[in-house]
Amino acid sequence: MHLPLGANAEIIGVFDKPHSRTEVDLITRYDRFCRASRVPIGRLSIRRSEGRVLLSDIYLPDRRLIIEAKNLGDLAESYRVRQNIKTALAQLLDYARFIDDPKLAVLLDTDVNDDIRSLLYYYGIGIITDAGYGIFEESWPDQVSMQQPDNRLSY
Prior knowledge:
The chain is an alpha/beta fold.
């Protein structure tokens, strides 16, 4: 059930509640970038029916953009990178069901391979990458031609 922002969700400050220690530096850099660009930035706080609260890492209200941050730089194994991306995907899909017509993106400290990019694009999720020197780059599924993977099972 999609709810308009405000019914069960509110925007709070990016640092009103603690973030995971592994992502806090990345979120801080992105917060500085947004503020320098005069982009309103916050965090979604979604109160579920049983009283528990879901917190997004970042929310850009002017774009209705929910962002989940993942620090991949210290992960040597591609399996662990994939697991972190799959976790971000699940978190974004969980938050999205509470907000009318959101856009979704992952914020990453490093670029990802084509397989991971394809996974995110398949679900319409954009990628925001720390390009260094205080710059962040965005890529979106509609910026590339999408092709179905050739390795799907057929029956």
